[in-house]
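Deliverable D4.2, example record:
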Amino acid sequence: MKIFVILSLFCYSLAHTVLLPPHGIECFFEDLRKNDELSISFQVGDRNPQSTDQLTADFLITSPSGTVIRNTKGISHGTESVVANENGKYKYCFSNKDSPITTKDVTFNVHGVVYVDVNDPRSESVDMSVRKFQELVHDVKNEQGYQVVRERTHRNTAESTNSRVKWWSVFQLIIIASNSLFQIYYLKRFFEVKTVV
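Output generated by the structure prediction step:
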């Protein structure tokens, strides 16, 4: 029984990373039954370590009949959840159609929650407790992943600022040294005694 519960944890959550091409779209599918819940948490990052921008992408979920359930534009991170109202393949897509940036890196986790009838006397079973615990663990994992991307962005900004301050200080040092040498030369010429022979 324990092995089944541990293996079921891996079935209900999948972690993915995908690189969005410029003006491109990446789509994925999930088979759901009616009243199952699909929850997708994601964040958009940058593979370029020099980048300081917070990148965004578009997110779209469609039902098996082709109806658009969610359509979110320009989001950097978040969690989207839908409850299936029909059986079939639900499609979710990450889009970079409006941007020429080539380094958009989308990391996302898919959480599937199987519908459980509340009138079922077994709904408070160990399996349900494990699923609830699993959701809490995934929330913590997603928050940590978001913090890693945010830390990388802020670190790149800080390093860029430090580099600019360094080169500005070097420029100021050169100007001060040049000014000092000019003043010494000028004062030396000012106090020179010229004799006429």
